[in-house]
Amino acid sequence: MKLATVLLAVLAGGCCAAHRFERADRDAVTAVLARQRAAWNRGDLAAYMDGYARTGGLVFTSAGQIRRGWDDTMRRYKSRYGGDRAGMGQLGFDILQVQPLGADGAVVLGRWRLRGTPNAGSGVFSVVLERRPEGWRIVHDHTSRD
Predict the structure, then answer these.
(1) In the structure, what pLDDT confidence band is assigned to residue 11 with cuts at 50, 70 and 90?
(2) Phi (first) and psi of residue 110, to 5 degrees
(3) Does pTM surpass 0.90?
(4) 90-100 and 65-68 as β-strands: parallel, antiparallel, unpaired?
(5) How many domains does the chain have?
């Protein structure tokens, strides 16, 4: 009978409080993007890419192309922007919405603008972040131009 009581407590949530998406999680998610922006603006592509999950499951969609995996995404950024401050320009963005996806995920909707590079432009983005052992990381990025 004692085992049955323990099982009922577990099923009812009595032994452990369920993790919820808290204000601290929202702050951690937006901090990932803030670190990416700072890294981009100092020309540090490697630090910028740290915001993405370093996995083959990463999905990056831009300019009508779907790329899969961290390595492919890094190659795309390097080929387009060169990976130094001269080619990367200055990135700015506005976060319009952070929508929790359960306790361990979030979708961020925003507008981006890039200046000071031949690839300058602006548009919208939506990124899906996942709570991972190394912290919140982007697992899906969809970016489009105005």
Answers:
(1) very low
(2) -160, 175
(3) no
(4) unpaired
(5) 1
Task: Compute the distance between CA of residue 129 and CA of residue 107 in angstroms, rounded to an integer.
Answer: 6
Is the residue at 65 inside a domain?
yes
Report how far apart, in Å, the C-alpha atoms of 124 and of each of 16, 25, 44, 94, 133 are: 39, 23, 22, 9, 28
- Which tens digits make up the pLDDT trace of 42-98? 999 999 999 999 999 999 999 899 999 999 999 999 999 987 788 899 999 999 999
What CATH code is carried by the domain that includes residue 135?
3.10.450.50
Token pair, residue 31, equals: 């901090």
Phi and psi for 26 in degrees, rounded to 5?
Answer: -60, -45
Which amino acid makes up residue 30? T
7 within a domain of the structure (yes/no): no
Look up residue 97 and give its two tokens. Answer: 């919405």
pLDDT of residue 66: 96
The C-alpha atoms of residue 65 and residue 141 are separated, in whole angstroms, by 12
- pLDDT, mean of residues 100-104: 96
Could you tell me where the DSSP H helices lie in the chain? 2-11, 23-41, 45-49, 70-81, 85-88
